[in-house]
């Protein structure tokens, strides 16, 4: 039955189980509702918890080395017009001087417009 249950949103454990209307994680002890689990898949949040959406502007909060090159995306780099996508790198964007790239939301902070 664990094949149909979503992984834990806190630690990512696949060993979740159901108790009544709640889902539980045996590894970290997190409890959440099944309705929250369905909605949580579409939410992408930045490093401080702000909800991100397509078209937002974000800044990079840490120097990021690009694999296979000697290039670095410097802290404070402003990225405009992001697009939210599925996957490990959940932000698709274009960085001037570098080009099209995928970023992880944990390394960006939303800029208030």
In short:
The protein is about 5% helix and about 35% strand.
What is the strand content? Answer: 25-35%
Q: What integer value in Å does the Rg equal?
A: 17 Å
Please report the distance between the alpha carbons of the first and last residues. Answer: 45 Å
Distinct helical segment count? 1
Overall mean pLDDT: 85
Q: How would the global form be characterised? A: elongated
Strand order of the largest sheet: 1-2-3
CATH class of the largest domain: Mainly Beta
Instruction: Indicate the structural class.
Output: mainly beta
> How many runs of DSSP E, i.e. beta strands?
13
Uncertain segments: none
CATH topology of the largest domain: SH3 type barrels
Percent helix among the residues? under 10%
Overall number of domains: 2
Q: Helix-strand pattern, N to C?
A: EEEHEEEEEEEEEE
| CATH homologous superfamily heading of the largest domain | SH3 Domains
Largest sheet: 3 strands, antiparallel
Looking at the overall shape, the CATH architecture of the largest domain is: Roll
Pfam family, one: Zn_Ribbon_YjdM
Keywords: Hydrolase
Domain Protein YjdM N-terminal: 4-33
Family: Belongs to the YjdM family.
